[in-house]
Specification:
Layout (H helix, E strand, L loop, with lengths): L31 E8 L3 H12 L4 E5 L5 H6 L1 H18 L15 H25 L3 E4 L1 E5 L3 E5 L6 E10 L3 E3 L12 E2 L1 H4 L8 E5 L3 H13 L2 E6 L10 H13 L3 E4 L3 E7 L2 E6 L3 E5 L1 E4 L3 E3 L32 E3 L10 H15 L14 E3 L4 E6 L2 H6 L4 E7 L4 H6 L5 E8 L5 E11 L2 H13 L4 H5 L10 H9 L8
Parallel strand pairs: 1-2, 1-6, 2-3, 6-17, 8-15, 9-10, 9-15, 10-11
Antiparallel strand pairs: 4-5, 5-6, 7-16, 12-13, 13-14, 18-19, 19-22, 20-21, 21-22
Helix pairs in contact: 1-8, 3-4, 3-6
The protein binds flavin-adenine dinucleotide (FAD).
Length: about 500
């Protein structure tokens, strides 16, 4: 697809500005004109707006609900806040081991929810301030894409406004997928949206779906005191994760009393009393207070009205884009969860910035989705980047693998969390030692904060020799990554 030919285009007076394809747009005299109109104020959309504004572009951002999108209001931030509360409960419950006797923890979810909301409000205010500071014009309402890069805004506080732009960026995100037979009522059957707002803990919970979000919920609810069963239709949990990682998590969850059933599809539920009975597998049933449906998210193009715009969606509703986020319609990009790329906030950020660089004609490198970082905030945590052992073999690499367990790490013993490991997958060299690092997989305490080094190693195509030469501070958990790389050089220190 053609990039904008002249880098200075965005500075030109609007009337003279060449449009992609050389066409001068006829606009109504009441339309407001921008270099870029972004539809959707979640991570993908606001990253594009902030980054574009910092490059001097005149940008409008249209948001129908709250700035920050799923991530800030019903995703990453509230989920991690509740997981942090769960971690506090766990630590208080285990305090006696450290000689600190505080009695059993008592949970008041209304206080937790208020804390969660304060964090969300602060971040939302901060985001609005950033957008204002960069002179991004925010429209409150539903953005509808008209042909030829025109956008109508309506139904919100901004009233009905027509906008025109040289480029439009679609960032309308995603919503929870629903499951036939499990209509969300917010009381017994919940999606992630409702679960994140609970102020009472269910005594028993069934989580349908053993993916990242389902397992985070299972981990959080179990720590808070609910009896949790995860029902997964596939034959394994955590698709995309290294098999050793999934095995470790299954074992750790079992130790904590969480039941995981794989290969069992749910068929329906029958409410009664204060809960419901879930039917699954081969005629099995399970009584529960709450069912959390966590089977993924679908792209949300519903309100954009893409018909007749030239933007093409696939059979599942994802907007089809090229490697820079450009759709089939000239001058229209799409970023974030609405496209079929990993549904992660940081991927939205990266895609938003990529679209801006591309439309400025900067010839950026496309994102390599095989090596992006993944973090899952269960207990123990999971973090990885690059090839798993299985995917490396499938891709035809001749590999060597090292695994080091946290049970031998001093800092992990000190904090009292020794479940987990670091696994490094590297190309095999002719002498049998490791060469280029292909993947780094971590399970254990604080690994979401430790992945940085592994992510960089994979993306810089570092070799195990190069990584092993770095000194890891002692005592830290990051020593385990250093040890894992060192072991692949053919010599090791601690194990
Ligand atoms: P969204 O965040 O969904 O934002 C889209 C925005 O567009 C919304 O605000 C919506 O109101 C608006 N919109 C839609 N249509 C229109 C329209 N026509 N006009 C105007 N506005 C419109 N990701 C991580 O990276 N780390 C995590 O730890 C993590 N945890 C998660 C936990 C949960 C429970 C969930 C549900 C998700 C989590 N995610 C996490 C995923 C992350 O939230 C999403 O990948 C991210 O929010 C996607 O960003 P987006 O900008 O594409 O879309």
């Amino acid at each position: 697809m053609a990039a904008v030919p002249n880098r200075g285009w965005c500075r030109w007076p609007t009337a003279d500005r060449p449009r992609p394809g050389g066409k001068i747009l006829e606009v109504s005299s009441t339309a407001e004109n921008y270099d870029i109109v972004v539809i959707g104020g979640g991570p993908g959309g606001y990253a594009a707006a902030l980054y574009g504004a910092s490059a001097g572009l005149n940008i409008a951002l249209v948001e129908k609900a709250k700035l920050g999108g799923t991530c800030l209001h019903v995703g990453c931030i509230p989920a991690k806040e509740l997981l942090e509360t769960a971690s506090v409960v766990r630590h208080v419950a285990g305090a006696k081991e450290f000689g600190v006797d505080v009695g059993p923890p008592a949970l008041d979810l209304t206080v937790t929810q208020a804390r969660k909301q304060r964090i969300i409000d602060n971040l939302t205010k901060g985001l609005a301030g950033l957008l204002k500071g960069r002179k991004v014009t925010v429209y409150d309402g539903v953005g509808i894409l008209r042909g030829d890069r025109q956008v109508n805004v309506s139904g919100g506080e901004s009233g009905s406004v027509d906008l025109t732009a040289d480029q439009v960026i679609l960032a309308a995100g995603s919503v929870p997928r629903t499951l036939p037979g499990f209509d969300v009522d917010g009381r017994i059957v919940m999606s992630s949206d409702e679960l994140l707002a609970i102020d009472q803990l269910p005594a028993k919970t069934v989580v349908i779906g053993g993916g990242a979000i389902g397992l985070e919920f299972a981990s959080m609810l179990a720590d808070l005191g609910s009896q949790v069963t995860v029902l997964e239709a596939a034959d394994k949990i955590l698709p995309g994760c290294d098999a050793d990682v999934a095995k470790l998590i299954e074992r750790a969850f079992k130790k904590r009393g969480i039941t995981i059933r794989t290969g069992v599809a749910v068929s329906g539920h029958s409410p009664g009393g204060t809960g419901t009975t879930v039917s699954f597998g081969d005629g099995e049933t399970l009584d529960t207070g709450v069912v959390v449906v966590s089977i993924g998210r679908r792209p949300f193009a519903d309100l954009l009205d893409l018909s007749g715009t030239g933007v093409v969606v696939d059979e599942r509703g994802f907007v089809i884009v090229d490697q820079f986020g450009l759709t089939a319609a000239p001058g229209v990009y799409a970023v974030g969860d609405i496209t079929n790329t990993p549904q992660l906030a940081h991927i939205g950020f990266a895609e938003g910035m990529l679209a801006i660089k591309h439309l400025l004609g900067e010839e950026p490198l496309p994102i390599d989705y095989q090596t992006v970082p993944w973090c899952i905030y269960t207990h123990p945590e999971i973090a990885y980047a690059g090839h798993s052992e299985g995917s490396a073999r499938e891709a035809g690499f001749d590999i060597v693998v090292s695994k080091h367990r946290f049970m031998g790490n001093g800092r992990a013993m000190i904090v009292g969390e020794t479940d987990g490991m670091v696994k490094v997958v590297a190309e095999r060299q002719p002498d049998g030692t490791g060469g280029r690092i292909l993947g780094v997989h971590m399970v254990g305490p604080w690994v979401t904060e430790q992945l940085g080094q592994g992510y960089m190693a994979v993306n810089w195509e570092a070799t195990v020799d190069e990584v092993a030469a770095f000194i890891q501070p002692h005592p830290t958990m990051s020593e385990l990554f250093g040890e894992s790389a060192l072991a692949l050089t053919g010599r090791s220190l601690h194990g």
